[in-house]
Amino acid sequence: MTPTLFRKKETAETKEKHAPPSPEKKTLLQELCKGNKELHDTLNRTLLLDPETTRKEGIDFYEKQAEEYEANQKFRNARIAYQVAGEIALHEGKLQQVQKFFKKAAEAEPDYEFKRAFEYFNKKENAEKAIAVAKEYYTKTAKRTQA
After folding, report:
1. Is residue 65 within 8 Å of residue 81, measured between CB atoms?
2. CA dist., res. 79 & res. 108, Å (int)
3. What is the arithmetic mean of pLDDT over 57-82?
4. How far is CA 114 from CA 44, 46, 110, 119, in A?
5. Cα–Cα distance for residue pair 37/41, rounded to 1 Å
6. Listed residue (96, 93, 118, 91) closest to 107, CA to CA
7. Positive/negative CA dihedral, 100, 109, 80, 128
8. 3-class SS at 82?
9. pLDDT tens across 25-67, in order?
10. Which of 117, 75, 118 is nearest to 99 (CA)?
11. Per DSSP, which regions of the chain are E strands?
């Protein structure tokens, strides 16, 4: 008798289980960050999902709101308002405001779990790189939603 006589016939399902894993499809943000994990992680936390809706109030509104929260010692709310102001500045490509608001967000709630994402913007070259990738990201996502 041959050993293959008693083997189970391989089905499509079992072939799938034994096939080498296919490489993961990269997201647009992963493609734009070109393997820079720190940049990707930062932008993953700071890009606006719905820029048009968030930008309606404007940077000044969120800055004023953050300052009021700080005065009332509502530091988490202040961090969130500064973060939104920074995210709008990132969307608009305003380097100095990006750095200013993310620095204030990091300071407002020092023990915030993702504070490192805000601190990434402290170095000018990091902030410039993030703004360039964000601009490209927003351009490409706007085209996708319009199509």
Report:
1. yes
2. 5
3. 97
4. 11, 10, 10, 9
5. 6
6. 118
7. positive
8. helix
9. 889 999 999 999 999 999 999 999 889 888 899 999 999 999 9
10. 118
11. none
